Amino acid sequence: MRMSDLVARYINEILERQDGEAEIRRNELATTLGCVPSQINYVITSRFTPEQGYIVESRRGGGGYIRITRIHATHAEAIMHIVNSIGKSLDKATAEVMLNNMLERDMIDRRTARLMAAALGERAYRDVPQQYRDQVRATVFKNMLLTLIE
Q: What mean pLDDT comes out for the span 97-106?
């Protein structure tokens, strides 16, 4: 398993134990996991983003910390949060990350995730000119998400 996966798993375990809020000290966590502090930064900036349902606060200095809070929202609010975070274009890799996060948070089931992934994959856009694919993908994904709101 990659170090970034281990760091993310460790932080997620803390979030689960502490009801969706983790306060960590970057250097201490790096020492505990046997990695460099920059790996902690990488994981936090790539896997614990607002688009993925997290708020990250940090305080620098000797008593500094990083606080990660999982956003608690209704199903409809969480979907709208994702819709609003997409913007005008969306690449395939980002769409996959969003789908995986939705699946992990039980916002969608596996079958729905597979269907959505098929609609967002490169095959679906092979007849669309390259310069428009990410824009079309964003529009399609937003429309699919809006149909999930009850």
A: 87
